[in-house]
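Hi V.,

You were right to ask for the full record rather than a summary. Here it is.
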Amino acid sequence: MRTRNVNGKTAGGETAGRYDQNLTDSQILDLFDWVVSAACDEQQPEVFSVPPGAVELNVFVECAPDYYAVWLLKNIPVAAALPLDNFYRLLPS
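Predicted structure:
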């Protein structure tokens, strides 16, 4: 992903890098499994809402009908989803 110069200003440092630049698909899937396991006994909200400021990481697997999504907030996993299956898990804050 490239940053763009908007209104003559330089894009901020937080947009220049990616949180997942050193994570493999396998590591992101491990985070997905961890969030789902950690949230299994937690009551989930009726309407899923991503925590403000969270960054989404996605893994697309050819043999799966859905994609895996994990959200990080300050480099800590806070939510996971299989969005097309309407499966969401959110860790309590």
